[in-house]
Amino acid sequence: MILGAVLFFTACNSPKSNSKEAFFTWEDSYHRHVQLDTAPQRIVSISPAITEVMFLVGAQDKLVGVSDFCNYPPETEKITKIGGMHNINFEQLLSLHPDVVLIGSMISQKDVDAIEKMGIPVICIVEESSLEGMAEMMEVVGKITQCEGKGNAEAAKWRERIAELRGNAPNPADRKCVYYVVGFGDGGDFTAPKNTHIQEIIELAGGRNAGDSLTGWNISREYLFKVNPDIIVVRREDRDAFVSRHPYTQLDAVKNGKVYPIESGWIDVVSLRNMQAVDYIREICEK
Fold first, then answer.
1. 19: how many CB neighbours lie within 10 A of its CB?
2. Which of 109, 122, 154, 270 could form a disulfide with 127 if both were Cys (CB 3.0 to 4.6 A apart)?
3. First-to-final CA distance of the chain
4. What is the per-residue pLDDT across 43-100, written as a single tens digit (0 to 9) for each?
């Protein structure tokens, strides 16, 4: 009986004891239980959003490697690149001796398994499809990098900013219709549908997303001309081609000079720079 009691007590208390000893335990975005026994000093980020957050919280000195797509802020040029989202250079990654690899939503399970087989912990922090998801990322990255205070403070500011924008939003009837050009030309027309971070950006800016009734990214020309948006926002590098191409030249926004270029890094993926897109589109809507 005594032996049984001892075994029962040990079994009940061991997980709790191990959890206390670990530096970081969490159920990541892929619902995997992850644990770091000690604070990581060498971190590889394969997510542009995570890389930006590491700079934000002041943990950039722990970045020893980033993906080819982590190009902001400019200081990322000095950090070793380990390939793209779908062509990771595992030999390069291993040579960096990282304590942990932080990933977003674009890394396959096959690549995650390959990294973990090398003995490197992997933590997935997905940006989600909402700007609000960035706040949790700030908190989690702050905790992992021992910059918890800064991460929590920046997350609070981010949430306050979103609440402020929503509180000051114009009435639905007063919102201008904004069309973001995701794709155009012979391959078809594409824009952001409802329930996407791009729609959230447009709405926080005080506009109405032209694709708010769509469930997919493709849009017919008939739909586009029926909506006939007040404002068109297009990637900076695509603006000249768009405004000079038929039949887009027949849209009122093109005729009226209401086509505005935007940095793709501000809007195409969920990141800290989404707030720059909000401010930019808000200025346009207020003109």
1. 10
2. 270
3. 80
4. 999 999 999 999 999 999 999 999 999 999 999 999 999 999 889 999 999 999 999 9
